[in-house]
C-alpha cells in the first residue's frame, strides 16, 4: 500500500527525490526505531511528524453502515445503531489501543530527539472530534484527564486500562464510557499534547486535525464530500505550543 501511494504521488508529477518510502508498523517498537534511524541517517532531523495510523476497532457491515450514514446524513451515532452495523470484541479493543494510542505515543517518543533538531518542529495527529472529553460521561476519567497540572502519561494509561477492563466486563454503558472503542483511544491521544514534556520540547507545536467526511474506500464509500472536489479537507480542533 505504501509503495502504491508513493507511485501515485510520482505519477501526479511530484519529483522522485521528494518522495521516499520506508516500511512502518506502529505497533512494533523495532519498526518505529528502524524508521527513526532511517530519518536520522538520511535527513539528520525531522520537521513534521504526522500520526495518521489508526483503526476503528469495529468490524463494520458495509451495506448497513452505508445505509446508516445516508439516513443520518453524517457519521452514524448511538449504541443501538452501531449494534446493527458493526461488532466489537475485546481483541479488537486491545488492537485499537495498541494502534491508536500506544502507536502514536511510540512514534512521538522515538522521533522527539529528531524533532528537537528542527527550527520549527510540529506534530500533527490526524484524529477525530469524537475523542473530545465531552463525549466521555465517565466522571472519574474526565476528572483525571482534566487535571492538567497533574496529568502525565501514567494517568492517561490508567484511564485507557480502566476502559479496557470495563469493556471486558461489559460495563461500558453503566460506567459512562462511549460505545465505540476509538472514542476513548482518541481521547488519550488528544491528552498527549497536554503531558508532552515541554521543558525538553520547547517550541514544539502539537496539533489535532479531523478529516472532513470524505468519500473513501476505508469508510466504505460513506461520506459527504469528494476529495478531488475539495481543497480544505482538515478541520483543526486542538493545538498546543510548548
From TrEMBL:
Entry annotated with the keyword Oxidoreductase: yes
GO MF annotations in UniProt: oxidoreductase activity
Entry protein name: Uncharacterized protein
UniProt-listed Gene3D superfamilies: NAD(P)-binding Rossmann-like Domain
The organism's place on the tree of life at top rank: Eukaryota
InterPro entries: NAD(P)-bd_dom_sf, SDR_fam
Family, per entry: Belongs to the short-chain dehydrogenases/reductases (SDR) family.
Alphabetical keyword list: NADP, Oxidoreductase
Pfam family of the protein (one): adh_short
Keyword check for DNA-binding: no
Amino acid at each position: 500500500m505504501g509503495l502504491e501511494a508513493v507511485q501515485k504521488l510520482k505519477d501526479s508529477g511530484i519529483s522522485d527525490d521528494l518522495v521516499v518510502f520506508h516500511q512502518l508498523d506502529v505497533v512494533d517498537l523495532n519498526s518505529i526505531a528502524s524508521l527513526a534511524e532511517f530519518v536520522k541517517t538520511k535527513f539528520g532531523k525531522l520537521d513534521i511528524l504526522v500520526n495518521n495510523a489508526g483503526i476503528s476497532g469495529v468490524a463494520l457491515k458495509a451495506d448497513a453502515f452505508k445505509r446508516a450514514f445516508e439516513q443520518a446524513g453524517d457519521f452514524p451515532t448511538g449504541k443501538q445503531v452501531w449494534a446493527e452495523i458493526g461488532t466489537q470484541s475485546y481483541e479488537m479493543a486491545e488492537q485499537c489501543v495498541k494502534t491508536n494510542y500506544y502507536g502514536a505515543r511510540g512514534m512521538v517518543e522515538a522521533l522527539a530527539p529528531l524533532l528537537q533538531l528542527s527550527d520549527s518542529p510540529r506534530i500533527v495527529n490526524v484524529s477525530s472530534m469524537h475523542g473530545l472529553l465531552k463525549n466521555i460521561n465517565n466522571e472519574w476519567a474526565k476528572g483525571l484527564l482534566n487535571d492538567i497540572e497533574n496529568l502525565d502519561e501514567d494517568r492517561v494509561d490508567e484511564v485507557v486500562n480502566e476502559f479496557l477492563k470495563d469493556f471486558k466486563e461489559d460495563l461500558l454503558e453503566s460506567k459512562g464510557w462511549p460505545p465505540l472503542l476509538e472514542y476513548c483511544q482518541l481521547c488519550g491521544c488528544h491528552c498527549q499534547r497536554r503531558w508532552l514534556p515541554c521543558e525538553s520540547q520547547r517550541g514544539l507545536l502539537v496539533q489535532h486535525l479531523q478529516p472532513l467526511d470524505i468519500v473513501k474506500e476505508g469508510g466504505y464509500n460513506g461520506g459527504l464530500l469528494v476529495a478531488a472536489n475539495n481543497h480544505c479537507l482538515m478541520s483543526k480542533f486542538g493545538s498546543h505550543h510548548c
